[in-house]
Write a structure and sequence with these properties.
Strand 2 (27-32) and strand 3 form a beta hairpin. Helix 1 (10-18) runs parallel beside helix 3 (163-177) and helix 2 (97-111) packs antiparallel against helix 3 (163-177). The strands form 2 sheets. A 7-stranded mixed beta sheet has the order 6-7-5-4-3-2-9, with helices on one face. It has a two-stranded antiparallel sheet with strand order 1-8. It starts with 9 loop residues before the first helix and ends with a strand. It contains 3 helices and 9 strands. The protein is elongated, with a radius of gyration of 18 Å. It is an alpha+beta fold and 199 residues long. The chain has one domain.
Length: 199
């Protein structure tokens, strides 16, 4: 399935949608320098947990756009995401964690209505055990999820008009990884990404 051909102003419209994303209060969202060589247009966002009662988690969302389309994408837009979160003690070493991590992504896309094609990625789990004079430290672990997909709009509308759903899917994935419960509709507030001070 290919995305509806994008107009000349598709990326500008996509940015409007992205910057209207709903952000959970447990996370801070920022706009970061975007990769310059992957596509003619790109946007990068970063997020990290700011709630002391939330497991440490952070992530990155990159939106790529080529108005001519890319054969490997099967479309004109590509979303690339990264999420890293600390693991709770009872999850460290769980043999099913890789599958669970990928299911978080699938559920996040479905739950936000972010339809896509050409999705792929990896789930990496790591843990560390302390020894000797540091043996009393608890075992720590992390899960990292890297994924990319091509956003589509199956109702025939321009795909850039649903780009906020894909950012929301990434934030929902981050919430899953951080062990947060789903946020009821209408609780979170709309917040535009803050540009980092590069001075």
């Amino acid at each position: 399935m290919r995305s509806v051909p994008a107009t000349a102003d598709a990326f500008a419209e996509a940015l409007v949608r992205v910057r209207s994303v709903v952000v959970r209060p447990e996370f801070a969202l920022d706009e970061a320098p975007a990769p310059a060589r992957l596509a003619p247009s790109a946007l990068a966002l970063t997020a990290e947990s700011v709630d002391p009662d939330t497991d440490p988690a952070s992530g990155r969302f990159v939106l790529l756009h080529d108005p001519d389309g890319v054969e490997e994408w099967a479309g004109t837009f590509r979303a690339v995401v990264f999420v890293r979160a600390a693991l709770e003690a009872d999850l460290i070493g769980d043999p099913l964690l890789h599958e669970v991590g990928w299911s978080w992504l699938v559920e996040s896309l479905a739950g936000t209505g972010a339809e896509c094609t050409q999705a792929g990625g990896t789930v990496t789990c790591s843990s560390g055990q302390s020894f000797g004079s540091m043996a009393d430290r608890p075992t720590d672990g992390f899960v990292e999820i890297r994924a990319s997909w091509t956003p589509v709009a199956t109702d025939g509308s321009p795909v850039e008009l649903v780009m906020d759903r894909h950012v929301s899917a990434w934030l929902e994935l981050l919430a899953h990884a951080a062990g947060l419960m789903p946020m009821p509709p209408g609780i979170a507030q709309v917040s535009a990404p803050r540009r980092r001070n590069r001075g």
